[in-house]
Amino acid sequence: MTPEEAGGLHAILENPHTWVYLGFLIFVVLAGPKIWKALAQMLDRRSLKIKSDLDEAQKLKDEAQALLAEYQRKQRDAMREAEEIISNAKALAQRQIKDAGKKLEENLARREKASLEKIHQAEAAALAEVRREAVDVATAAAAQIIRSQIDGVRGGALIDRAIAEVEKKLH
Questions:
Q1: How many of the other CB atoms lie within 10 Å of CB of 83?
Q2: Whole-angstrom Cα distance, residue 154 to residue 101?
Q3: Angle 56-57-58 (CA atoms, 0-180°, nearest 5)?
Q4: pTM for the full predicted model
Q5: CA torsion 18→22→23→27, rounded to 10°?
Q6: Distance between CA 8 and CA 112 in Å, rounded?
Q7: C-alpha to C-alpha distance for 94 and 89, rounded to whole angstroms
Q8: CA–CA distance from 155 to each of 58, 137, 143, 161 (Å)?
């Protein structure tokens, strides 16, 4: 080696950076595989933890979607049921309105018939009363005429004859 080369080598060996680089190189060669192995294991554990967390998140997401789908189905069923209830209630209301209309018509017809019967009864009663009054007036007039035209002997004979006719008719 030439002195210049030896001086250059000497300068390199005296430089602290050279020793730091050399120490780092030795450290990497000796401790590197263990560090890489530990770093790889740590990264693997971290990777497994992340994968586990992702799997758990996916599972929770799937469960949430299943629950959402179930609740949406239940909501659709509830809406369908509510529509059926409303439809049935409307149909029932229509039937009740028709029934109430029929009952009202029946009641009105029944009341009209009852009113007409009362009117006919009142007419019949009034007619009977008029007839009774007419009979009473006619009887009173006939009695007055008979009293004024028939004397005592003739009246007695007429009464006897009338009693005989009544007895024949009764027996």
A1: 10
A2: 74
A3: 90
A4: 0.40
A5: 150
A6: 140
A7: 9
A8: 132, 21, 11, 10
Q: What is the mean pLDDT of each run of 10 residues along the chain (171 residues)?
A: 62 85 86 83 94 96 97 96 96 94 93 94 90 76 69 69 71 57
Amino acid present at 27: F
Distance CA 114, CA 127 (A): 19
Look-up: residue for tokens 């659709």? 76
Distance separating alpha carbons of residues 170 and 164, to the nearest angstrom: 10
The pLDDT of residue 152 is 62
In the numeric block, which tokens belong to residue 61?
């997401």
- pLDDT for 45-68, tens place per residue? 999 999 999 999 999 999 999 999
**pLDDT score recorded for residue 171:** 57
CA distance 76 to 70: 10
Asked if residue 155 lies in contact with residue 146, where contact means CB atoms within 8 angstroms, the answer is yes
